[in-house]
Amino acid sequence: MGAANVIPGVSGGTIALITGIYERLINAIKSVDHKALKLVLQMRFADFWRAVDGTFLASLFAGIAVSIVSLAKLLEFLLEHYETHTMAFFFGLILLSIVFVGKTVEKWNASTLFMLALGTVVAISVALLAPASQDSSFFYVFLCGIVAICSMILPGLSGSFILIIMGNYSLILAAIGKADFAILIPLGLGCAFGLIAFSHLLAWIFKHFRDQTIALMTGFILGSLAIIWPWKTANIEIIARQNKPDKELVTGYDWALPTISDGATWQALLLVAVGALTIWGIEKFAGGHSKNAVSG
To answer: How many domains does the chain have?
Structure first.
């Protein structure tokens, strides 16, 4: 999940869904509520740890942190020098993940097919939206925090890309660099509120409309392929930063078809296959691990 969040257009929620931990993750986050807080105030830390599935959350977030620290620089280098090849690998990974996630829908019918189409259209529409104007008002930054954290949880939607669409990516980037709490406080409040509230909503939806929810998320993942498509040219905007080098911000893409006669195209297509095989291996490992856990 940590590695996925580093890649523009790729969601850590996609990896959680593929590996079968998504619903457990949502329920664990949802369990951090007033009851859990009461256990902390009563100094019943062992009960609190069990109530919030602490071992699972600690293991997951530790893995995310290690992955970001160990892979961020490598992925940044690969995206800068071998963007087409890197995105080709992730395109293959996401492409096959659609099959594995779709297989978890128990019954395909008119409602699930509609949700699949809806999710696809929404994700593609997000990719085609022009960025909004920057807005530093408290309420709008708070809203950015809610929307960004919700999109990070949802498979197929990239939180950083959503912030670009909302026009506040550069504002928040600068606020982090300058420790501008006038921006960071409403952003953090929005993230915290969105994470807790959205996890409750998702848990309820999963419980009552599981197939439709997974179909919708499958559509999100399918639509996200528009952002991950390897053969595209990014539209770049240069952001000036105080006491730091200027930063390039991707505001959109111009898509193209691959040139079959180009040797680099065949290298990229090979990496698409490698990405697909990688997600196949992850899915088989996750499935085997789940079976062993049940039998144990």
So the answer is: 1
